[in-house]
Amino acid sequence: MAGQWISVYALGSLLAAIPLTAATRSWRRRPLLLGAIIGFAIANLITALTASFTVALAARFVGGVSAGLLWALLAGYAVRMSPPHLAGRAMAIAMAGTPLALSIGIPAGTFLGLLAGWRLTFGLLSLAALLLVGWILAKVPDFAGEAETQRPSLAEVYAVPGVRPVLAVTLCFVLAHNLLYTYIAPLLAGHGMAGRIDTVLLVFGASALASIGLTGALIDRWLRPMTFVSIGLFLAAALLLAVATGAPLAIYAAALIWGLAFGGAATLFQTASARAAGPAADVAQAMIVTAWNIAIFGGAVVGGVILDGMGAGGLPWGGIVLLVGATGSAVCMRR
Length: 335
Fold this sequence. Notes:
This protein is mainly α. It has one domain: MFS general substrate transporter like domains (Growth Hormone, Chain: A, Up-down Bundle), CATH 1.20.1250.20. It has helices at about 1-25, 30-50, 55-80, 85-95, 95-115, 120-140, 155-160, 165-180, 185-190, 195-245, 250-265, 265-275, 280-310, 315-330. It starts with a helix and ends with a helix. The relative contact order is 0.15. GO terms for molecular function: transmembrane transporter activity. It is found in: Cell membrane. Its main location: membrane. Keywords: Cell membrane, Membrane, Transmembrane, Transmembrane helix. It is a multi-pass membrane protein.
């Protein structure tokens, strides 16, 4: 059941991010942001209360649609709220939720679900969303949408120099991440560390959090070099995971390096996308969301094929191939 819910949620984000963002480009930003958060709250509340599996699936799909729109809006909103010279740092703060959710949110939700039941977890998510609505009404300014004369088509945004390389880097990098993260249990079992999954992921999460701070401090001046550093660190981590059989310390080192590479990745890619797209940043962000969710789906599918054909030892090598592709795409990004 949990797998189906996750897949349907991701499918909602994947299918809705681009068309919904494009259709609402002329809308004022704060009402749109509030609508997406309220939709997320309602979807979680229905999930918590319904006894119907079909209704719950539909609610998860709506939750994914809301999340896809939210993700597309956040980067542009952060840039508009900040001075130009601090735009990257503002985006780093806005996008900190991704590694925070991986390192803290998922374990906390799982623990709460085991302690009090999964329905309470979804109910609390709805409550948190409603509190967020109040905070936005009190503190977050509103901005106008795009004027009709300032709205390039989706094809025109896609053709903007620099947008396609960022999308390619995102797809390759996140696909490599999900190859490893989705199948971390068999991968660690192959290294004789089946009982240490929690500690390995804790190291990954802690270093990802540190990466957020580093990214926020450096991104406005060093976006392009940091992108290469992130890919290079991930390549090093994947190589360690590929060759360090029976070496627990090396696996922990790989998790540490992997977390440093991944923690700021969402901010790097979305900042690069926003800079390349200019006024059409929200649509470009929706494309990033779509690429990210394709990579989530693809990580499960491609990882499963590798696992069946080559065993868990083949997963890091698959990641290495993808990261080489990410490096080539990063070379084509705008300077």
